[in-house]
Amino acid sequence: MGANNKQHGVSRRKALRTLATSAGAAASALWVGNLTTLAQTQAMDIHLAASASLQTGGAFRPAVLTAAQFETVGVLVELIIPATDTPGAKALLVDRFVDGVLETATPADRDRFVAGLGWLDTRSSRLSNKTFAQATAAQQTDLLTRLSAEPSSEEASGVQFFTAIKAMTITGYYTTEVGLRQELGDDGRLMLAAFEGCTHAEHQ
Asked: Are 77 and 98 in contact (CB under 8 A)?
């Protein structure tokens, strides 16, 4: 593996820390913690269901999200884990993974996530006169940077939503074969029933 590949791998693995650093926000928002835990514990079943749907052919139809909401989720997951020398989150169908998590979530938790998508579009429209998916990459990144700031000046509901989508994206990505084998150097224990996170010594 070349130096650039190693650099990308370390950078990607650092993203796993989000699951830990998001704990404070999740603790103050039960629905965020619920979705994060659900994504981790149901990852294998959700990925298997997504694979089965691919084999049937035809256009994918989200079980929970509308077409517009699903597009926004696709933009978000790719911004969170973009393509480098390995595929980004969207190419690995993490947007479908998120929809799968929502399908198994409680109606209350699902509604909070969908409300978060609505908040994102409203906030984006105020900042750029465009919905989040329609905004430029720079405008999208600016809004996500605002949400990631410590402390953030954005509304708590927006920060909580971004915490949830980050955790779900990271779990969805790093429980795929590419995420495990190429990014984390997994020894073959693919599609874990429960996501254990990074076990590299330098990240403990």
From this structure: yes
